[in-house]
Amino acid sequence: MREFWLFGVKQAYACIFGGFLLFVMLATKLYYPIEAIHRYDFIFISAIVFQVLLLLFRLETLRESVVILIFHLVATIMELFKTSDAIGSWTYPEEYIFGIANVPLFTGFMYSAVGSYIARVWRIFDFRYSYYPRHSWTVILVTLIYINFFTHHFIWDFRWILVAVTIALFFRTQIYYRVDVEYRNMPLLIGWGLVALFIWIAENLATYANVWVYPNQDKQWEMVSFSKFGSWYLLMILSFVLVASINQIKTIKRRS
Predict the structure, then answer these.
(1) Cβ(71)–Cβ(111) under 8 Å?
(2) 22, 49, 187, 212: which one has the fewest Cβ atoms less than 10 Å from its Cβ?
(3) What is the pLDDT of residues 22-48, one digit of tens each?
(4) Looking at residue 255, what is its pLDDT?
(5) Closest Cα partner for 203 from 230, 233, 223, 227?
(6) What is this structure's pTM?
(7) Beta bridge mates, 184
């Protein structure tokens, strides 16, 4: 029970940036009295200030801040495409000053929260792996995943082929994590699935807070389709490999 409690505390610490961002979104949905600053701009400024505080109080490392910057750039490019007038996968209905085209700048931080979580939880639990595939193979996989986020609007969507390739590559991979003293382990594919599920839940809260809306939510809020879980699962893999590119993959011998 002590280890289970410690696991929860460490996970909460790893989610500190994403949790703060979601809190600001929900709180400003319920009550936002500042007329001089657009709500989206307030979320953007709050995210920057919180990032600075994390660095000042050494709750975040410089390496983790680099991960956040990379994710912000990668995500903004995808957001510009997805929210363009020609595609319109989702929209940001409120006004803002800090933004590019149809994309308010705080949106990059939403994806950065995922990268921040992975980088932080990797360090906190001292991740190790068995049967981890070659790094070059994983880079090719996530490159195709990222490309498919764009091309499926114009050609056949091959995400399910990518899911099948992911399963083939990582079917034997176990992730080992140390909560206290002893290492525990689980299949990496299941770990990704659990994180993707929590992201899907957070997405429902964010759309409820009117941070962004899908076309079917334009008139009235409704739950995000569970089909989005698949998209978040693929994004999890992309996020994980990006973090793995700047972290050392430590291996561990499989216990008999």
Answers:
(1) yes
(2) 49
(3) 999 999 999 999 999 999 999 999 999
(4) 54
(5) 223
(6) 0.90
(7) 177
